Amino acid sequence: MKSYTAEEVSQHNKADDLWIIVDGKVFDLTKFVSEHPGGKKVLTKVAGKDATKKFKQFHNDAIMERVGLPMQIGVIGDDNSKARL
Predict the structure, then answer these.
(1) At the N or C end, where does the chain have fewer CB atoms within 10 A?
(2) Domains in the chain, please, with CATH?
(3) 46-72 confidence digits (pLDDT tens)
């Protein structure tokens, strides 16, 4: 899985290019924006940011597994960590 920095994610902060972070995982929600039950405005407020707190307020783990995980594109962190083991 590809690693990203929070700074890289922050560059994807518009409805037509929307990434978020939840629990250290990076999600590309660009194609999901128009389908989100809470509307486009909800997602654009957290675009490019760590949305963990807001996500957990309104969703449970089952939603993440069923809907969220297919949109995961990476993780926050150092992709060289395995090379140091």
Answers:
(1) C
(2) 2-76 (3.10.120.10)
(3) 999 999 999 999 998 898 888 898 999
Backbone angles phi and psi of 82, in degrees to 5: -70, -30
Is there a contact between 20 and 47 (Cβ–Cβ < 8 Å)? yes
On the question of pLDDT at 79 being above 60, the answer is no
Could you tell me which residues come within 8 angstroms of residue 60 by beta carbon, excluding any fewer than 6 positions away? none
Strands 17-22, 13-14: pairing kind: antiparallel
Q: Is the pLDDT of residue 84 over 90?
A: no
What is the Cα–Cα distance from 38 to 36, expressed in whole angstroms? 5
Residue written as tokens 């760590």? 50
